[in-house]
Design goal:
Subunit structure: Monomer.
Helix content: 25-40%
CATH architecture of the largest domain: 2-Layer Sandwich
EC number: 2.7.7.7
CATH topology of the largest domain: Alpha-Beta Plaits
Number of strands: 12
Cofactor: Mg(2+)
Distance between the termini: 62 Å
GO molecular function, one term: magnesium ion binding
Strand content: 15-25%
Structural class: alpha+beta
Keywords: Cytoplasm, DNA damage, DNA repair, DNA replication, DNA-binding, DNA-directed DNA polymerase, Magnesium, Metal-binding, Mutator protein, Nucleotidyltransferase, Transferase
Shape: globular
CATH superfamily of the largest domain: Reverse transcriptase/Diguanylate cyclase domain
Order of helices and strands: EHEEHHEHEEHEHEHHHHHEHEEHE
């Protein structure tokens, strides 16, 4: 008689409208009202939106101008990243009461492997339910969860019953669950890829599953094999408690558009200084510097340069950023500048998870 197959038990916890929920928790007058964290009705970009605002089509990365147009009663608040980080630490402490295999993706979401857990509870669904209950009672905000045999399915499932819900996809349910999903619901399939798939007649997981690996690789290159596997529930990535930081960045959106490179250099100096502080705090350096420029018409341009050596010094970062700035003339006035460093050194013995703070 064959032994039963052993499956991993993975939970993906995702806080509901995290930044906005924290603001509504700290200021009860904001509860039940459409709220945008970041941006303003004249400038900036929305970092997060409450569910009340999402009903009007307000979403993260939307300009404050467009958000206000969508929702005239929208309330804007400035982000308080120190507060969000404080709340995130409280939530992660709860996670670690159940397992040490916790992989944070950001301040507001994480994977947990509870196959073997500190409570000795064989039910991942009951663990997820208990964690969500504790977050609500001890922290004061709600979370949603997805539970399944791997990270991909758990991540997709956590969005299924949002907000304040959970979805369990048992091993025998994985393929039927994925087959019935709209392809845009697949984690890792963005808008551009979804549009390409629609043009190829791929609208659901079932449509995707009908395509051969060769067909998918022909149309989506290396990602084709990934799509071929995930629709079959094949995703073997482990929960990694110490995720290696792949890039470190800082960026600023300005109250007034910049029209002169002289003023841009002044802003880049501040951004480079901020970036240097983050790099030195975690003993990180890198070789590739990328300058991000967002123009007044909201188009974004990036320019990169890879150096033959690792750097973390503000002076070297700034000089390279200036070189990239002068690479070509500005086509419009500039509303945002950012500098990021990647191609990081891999000799760090102690890996860290860095949550970056972006100014709005």
């Amino acid at each position: 008689m064959a032994e039963p197959i052993s499956y991993r038990k993975i939970i993906h916890i995702d806080m509901d409208a995290f930044y906005a929920s924290v603001e509504q928790m700290d200021n009860p007058e904001l509860k039940g009202k459409p709220l945008a964290v970041g941006g303003s009705e004249t400038r900036g970009v929305v970092s997060a939106a409450s569910y009340e605002a999402r009903k009007f089509g307000v979403r993260s990365a939307m300009s404050g101008v467009q958000a206000k147009r969508n929702c005239p009663d929208l309330i804007f608040v400035r982000p308080r990243f120190d507060r969000y980080k404080e709340i995130s630490k409280q939530i992660r402490k709860i996670f670690h009461d159940y397992t040490d295999l916790v992989e944070p993706l950001s301040l507001d979401e994480a994977y947990l492997d509870v196959t073997q857990n500190k409570k000795g509870n064989p039910s991942a669904s009951l663990i997820a339910q208990e964690i969500r209950k504790r977050i609500f009672e001890e922290v004061g905000i709600t979370a949603s969860a997805g539970i399944s045999v791997n990270k991909f399915v758990a991540k997709v499932a956590s969005d299924y019953n949002k907000p304040n819900g959970q979805k369990t996809v048992n091993p025998e349910e994985v393929e039927p669950f994925l087959e019935n999903l709209d392809i845009k619901k697949f984690y890792g399939v963005g808008k551009v890829t979804a549009d390409r798939m629609y043009h190829l007649g791929i609208f659901t997981g079932k449509d995707l599953k009908s395509k051969s690996a060769e067909f998918l690789e022909e149309h989506f290159n290396k990602s084709g094999l990934y799509y071929y596997n995930i629709v079959r529930g094949i995703h073997n990535s482990q929960v990694k408690p110490n995720r290696i930081t792949k890039s470190v960045a800082a960026e600023h959106t300005f109250n007034e558009n910049l029209t002169s490179e002289i003023f841009m250099i002044e802003k880049l100096e501040r951004i480079a200084s901020e970036l240097e502080n983050r790099l030195k705090k975690y003993n990180i350096s890198g070789k590739t510097i990328t300058l991000k420029i967002k123009y007044s018409d909201f188009t974004t341009q990036t320019r990169s340069k890879t150096l033959p050596y690792f750097i973390s010094d503000k002076g070297l970062i700034l000089e390279t950023a200036k070189e990239l700035l002068y690479q070509e003339r500005m086509k419009e006035s500039v509303r945002l500048l950012g500098i990021s460093l990647n191609n990081l050194n891999t000799e760090i013995k102690k890996t860290v998870v860095v949550q970056l703070r972006f100014e709005f």
